[in-house]
Amino acid sequence: MLFFELALVFICSYFLAILASFFNVVIFRTAREESFVGGRSKCEHCGKQISWRDNLPIYSFIMLAGRCRSCHSQISRRHFISELLAFVSGWFFYFGLLHAQALQGLPIGQLIVYFLCFFVLAFIVWADLQYFLVPDFLVILLTIFTVILLFLTESAWQTALLAVIFSCAVFAMIYLVARKFLAKEALGLGDLKLMVPLSLLLSWPLILVNIFLAFILGGIFAMIALVTGRKKFGQALPFAPFLVLAALISLFYGKFLIDWYLGFLL
Ligand SMILES: [Zn+2]
Known about the structure:
The protein is mainly α and 266 residues long. The chain folds into 2 domains: 1-31 and 42-104, no CATH class; 106-266, no CATH class.
């Protein structure tokens, strides 16, 4: 039985690597404004189409020793590493389920959807760090997962909807004010769209903690980047990583932070 269980975990983890490979294509082609549906992958150097057996996640990279079959130039390692991390994350999830006491009380269906949400969030951060963009495709996928979670956890959809309206209103206001007075975009529209699934994930009032923390974290980082000379004033910073980091903190410690803050006031 254990053999079959491990084989199943292996297959699911490899499926995550395939998903990672697909997400990389989505991110790369969104950045170049190409369609990611259809069209075979090509070598970045010689332009030769890559056959399916040279395009298997993780396996092909190792078999080809990281080089293109026809022109022998190096294949970007980033994709290989993200596929490998995706594969490893599947195993972490499995061993986490076996050993982490905190996880054992929760229904497996919820845990899997939460895991998929974190998985997509990781690639949203990855896309913003690489290309300063948040692909619509990933935001839509994440929204679908968060809606499924709403049903699975039987959360009140009204409060979740309130959180969506509130956060989108705040971000739309910042976006419009910055465009009018600074004549540039302080936030991307991608960040605004990302607030939809994040609001569904956190609901009200945790979304407040998310927005508040994201601006604090982003502000601190921007200041460090300015002082150390890594960024000039007015230069763009990717904001999605701060939104996602703040969302994770809010998800796990949001209630604690709200209590702490209210205790501080009263
Ligand atoms: Zn090549």
